[in-house]
Amino acid sequence: FVCSQVVVRRGEDLQAAPVWMSSGNMNATILPDGRLEFSRVHDGRVLLTEDNTRSFAAPTHPSTRGFTGFFSLTLQFSSTEGERLYGLGQHKTGDLDNKGHIFTLQPDNTEILIPVLHSSSGYSFLQNVPAYGTFNSSAERTEWRLEAVRYMDVWVGTTPKPSASNAAFKRSTDTEEGAGTAPVDWATLLSRYAHATGLSPEYPAWATGFWQSKNRYRNQSQLLDVARQHVTRGIPLSLIVIDYFNWRGSPLGDEVLPKQCWPDPKAMVDELKAIGVELLLSPYFHSLQPSSKNYPEAVRQRLLAVNTSGAAVEAGYDGTYIYDIYQPGARRFMAEKVTDGYIAPYGINHWWLDCDEPCGSNDVYNLVYRNGTWPAAFVGAAYPHVLGKAVSEELAVKGDESPVVMLGRSAWAGSQRFGHAVWSGDIESTFDSLQQQFRAGLNVAMSGIAYWTTDIGGYGGANITTPYFRELIVRWFQFGAFCPLFRLHGSRHGGPVDPRTDECGSTGASNEIWNFGEEAYKAIRVVMGIRAQLRPYIQSLYQENAKTGAPIIRPLFYDFPEDEVAASVDDQLMFGPSYLLAPQLFQGKTSRSVVLPELPAHELWVSWFDPSAVHNTTSGAVVIDEPTPLDTFPLFERVCVG
Predict the structure, then answer these.
(1) Which residues contact residue 499 at a Cβ distance below 8 angstroms, ignoring those fewer than 6 apart?
(2) Total-model pTM
């Protein structure tokens, strides 16, 4: 493996002559006027050129006041005509192509900025400083504005010279014409980015199954009752979740499950394991309230994030202070409390990293980290990334080879190497949201994150008794079952509600599939059966991702880069190399068109629901109309024949 990449940092003053360096199939040239240019070695094609020379200036972000040695930085690169940009994390634009959008380089609920893009012009670009700022793209250029940096640090990658093994991509290198639309070896491009930033560990086999969650199971008896009902009804269940406020009755930061709500956590964990169910806990352990028993020692050791005056400041969720996890000592201190509170006594070691941006007051953007030396504007975008690092490295149980399973609400470039899964945050329970999430998930996959999921049905605003929601939940399941992680969650209204509010808090309406009405229940059972049947295949996708970085879900153009029709499709996906999914994303629709890309002569598309429906596309992609009654949806297997 020869990585076609170049790392460029801020250098000395330039002479009049160009300065260049090469690595693999990439040349990087500093032109006489100081602009950067990236080109391929084997054919000389220019892939990327600075539109204007990078600009360093004095920083203006509030968190940088009183600091020296930091600069703001503006980078601008020219765009080729017809260029498409993929990756850049997760956004609610409803578009798969990120061209023409502006994104904030600050993690937030439902918005994840992973500063890597993969271009249809045949290159990858990583902005490798976790500074706050903005990304802006237009037809003419892409622009990065960073609030605080010490230097410029970018990674640029491309694909190798065509050879006999990848001759299918040779014509994309023969001419400068059509640079924005020529076929790209996406698999190699993404694999090189994954190797540069770190491959994801393989998640365990149980993770391929169904994850049950709601806002919120209020106590041990309620949670166990739901798990038992899944078993009684014959509904597959791999994991169940204890959501937030599980600390009710003790301060956030004590890292305990209070006895009045969770009387015997060890017995609970043991019973769940006996029926094949794992437990995931949301303890918000990067946060602690001033009343926590651990707060005084954290203050004494200066382990909390501070303001520009050097004082610890309330900035997190529910009146909390947050750990300065950029300090190794803070990560160890936090991990010791978590180990003592959950891992050692109960064997709980799967984590929901909610609010990991971190969330709270606006002050989180004006904090200072690394014991008062790193302003948030310099490193704040990587807070969820460093939290994932702490979980991966500090909470791993000795002798247990499997990775610590963690589900965060945000991430950064390379977070996948910690086994950091993400979900898409507190999204709306609407068909518009479902359409947004479909494209968002594909861009997360193109950003290197292996394990991603949504709240099936959306998080907020849903009444489970309405026909609208019952149609929505079915359609969302038909998408969610083909996400890397298959997870139901949400804050519901209507239907059966436990009205009690005591020391364990409230629980809200039901979020179990048997409470969504008989028609929805039957349709959901169908798709859950498909997921269960495909679990060995899904595990093979996990394995392949761990070896090569191949995304588990991907746009059609990833597997069919030379199919011009596939390049324009943004409402279908490939689930690994073998299954094409075209879910119904609109309310009340009973059919939809489906693009079946061109296949080699020995392959056919076969409908999952009607195996007699076989489509030969050896002469080119075909567009068919498929019925979408509530209990079925277009799903095709790519089958080898002869």
Answers:
(1) none
(2) 0.95
